[in-house]
Design a protein that fits this description.
470 residues, alpha/beta, Amidase signature (AS) enzymes, 15 helices, 13% strand
Length: 470
């Protein structure tokens, strides 16, 4: 499969048509997705129409967009006018969006071709894509293993060569963790840099849209197309990104001592892979230094209180009355009870109940307010660490991908898959997972690079230099 960067160059040079690029992807999807299950729906007709329009534009000599002719998959929680969106849930089965999410529209405006909607954990709640109400997505590297979650379908689509770029959403690691499991790049931008308008909300203060890509250049290209202020999103930031040139020999790489301790469940293979990354950075001239993020030990607990509290509020709109599935009942309360009881999955119900309890009278101060205070402490830890470090390096996940059914019955074990990614969301930072080797059984291992808000250019630069030096 061509990369997005290669596709754009060829389409703009009229050496390849957008239609031909699309048909190549559709052929691979037809051949392999029956086994992988990355897509809930492939938009064959509308994608072909989009590709044809891009070809007409190229032939007419008009200026082409940043993503000219690039097939892109979108996660099933992003609105796309005239197309179904279910958020991986039965409660939205058959729902057709009347409008298009800003992030998706920006792709279209940059001449990308939206190829289909990717499978996900229901309402983005999960770390394995086993919580989808429709199908299980398999890891393209080894179908016996999960692709990660909640954006597992998007990660698998890129890893399987179905499309060069896919969009996911990241609330506590839902882009970076599946990127690590599938061996691709996954970017969680600074909170507010990519519009959330049209993204079905899970936890509004944490959610952020970002791309999966097969190369760091493609991830940077997609980010350039997505990042812009949007008046439709009240959390959208007008502040420009920091263009920060750097010299690898003056780069200070922070290594959080808490993230490399035995308490995190870090496996020997992942730890060994991280040592190789450190060695490569050192050889390229970067200086390694120890930093401390002491309150990260509380991040997992704080995250599940905050995110579940916000989810219990956000998911209140799915009541069987306004839109989506509806089950008949003897009274209005009975309609609510049956609709939500029958159409929400167990993980969604678990988090709604946890959130409602945390916000209830008598428990708000003990749980939600305390979690928000911990969130502030975590952000302050990062602020302090970035006084001495330019970037922070951590594992993306403590383990490689696990087998289907291995953790689904143990919510805590599943939640621990995101132990290294959650603090980034709580602090509103930018983070990227990039491939850094494989385990003995061939499963990908990912490393995570974190930077201060608006420093995405530094992050991309470090990884490109690191890969060039390899």
């Amino acid at each position: 499969m061509l990369t997005a960067t290669e596709t754009v160059e060829l389409v703009k040079g009229q050496k390849l048509t957008a239609s031909a690029a699309l048909e190549t992807c559709l052929k691979v999807i037809d051949e392999r997705d029956g086994e992988i299950g990355a897509f809930l729906e492939v938009f064959t007709d509308s994608a072909r129409a989009q590709a044809a329009a891009v070809d007409i534009k190229a032939a007419s000599g008009r200026k082409m967009g940043l993503l000219a002719g690039v097939p892109v998959a979108i996660k099933d929680n992003m609105a796309y006018a005239g197309h179904r969106m279910t958020c991986g849930s039965k409660i939205l089965e058959g729902y057709i969006s009347p409008y298009t999410a800003t992030a998706v529209q920006r792709l279209i405006d940059e001449d990308a071709v939206i190829i289909g909607r990717a499978n996900m954990d229901e309402f983005a709640m999960g770390s394995s894509t086993e919580n989808s109400a429709y199908q299980k997505t398999k890891n393209p590297v080894n179908p016996a293993y999960v692709p990660g979650g909640s954006s597992g379908g998007s990660a698998a689509a890129v890893a399987a060569g179905f499309c060069p770029i896919a969009l996911g959403s990241d609330t506590g690691g839902s882009i970076r963790q599946p990127a690590a499991f599938c061996g691709v790049y996954g970017l969680k931008p600074t909170y507010g840099l990519v519009s959330r308008h049209g993204l079905t909300a899970f936890a509004s203060s944490l959610d952020q849209i970002g791309p999966f890509a097969s190369t760091v250049k493609d991830a940077e290209l997609a980010f350039s197309a997505l990042a812009a202020h949007d008046p439709k999103d009240s959390t959208s930031i007008e502040r420009p990104m920091m263009e920060r040139p750097f010299n690898m020999r003056s780069l200070r790489v922070g290594l959080p001592k808490e993230y490399f301790s035995d308490m995190t469940g870090l496996t020997p293979e992942v730890a060994a892979a991280m040592e190789k990354v450190k060695s490569r950075l050192s050889s390229a001239g970067a200086r390694m230094l120890e930093v401390s993020l002491p309150n990260s030990v509380y991040a997992l607990a704080a995250y599940y209180i905050i995110s579940s509290s916000e989810a219990s509020s956000n998911l209140g709109r799915f009541d069987g009355i306004r839109y989506g599935a509806s089950v008949k009942g003897s009274s209005l309360a009975d309609v609510y009870r049956k609709t939500r009881g029958q159409n929400f999955g167990p993980e969604v119900k678990r988090r709604i109940m946890l959130g409602a309890y945390s916000l209830s009278s008598g428990y708000y101060d003990a749980y939600y307010l305390k979690a928000q205070r911990i969130r502030t402490l975590i952000k302050q830890d990062f602020d302090e660490a970035f006084k001495t470090a330019d970037v922070i390096l951590t594992p993306t996940a403590p383990t490689t991908a696990f087998k289907f059914g291995e953790k689904i019955a143990d919510p805590l074990a599943m939640y621990l898959s995101d132990i290294f990614t959650i603090p980034c969301n709580l602090a509103g930072l930018a983070g990227i997972s990039f491939p850094t080797g494989k385990s003995q059984n061939g499963l990908p291992i990912g490393a995570q690079l974190l930077v201060k808000p608006f420093n995405e250019s530094l992050m991309f630069g470090v990884i490109k230099e690191l890969e060039h030096a390899a």
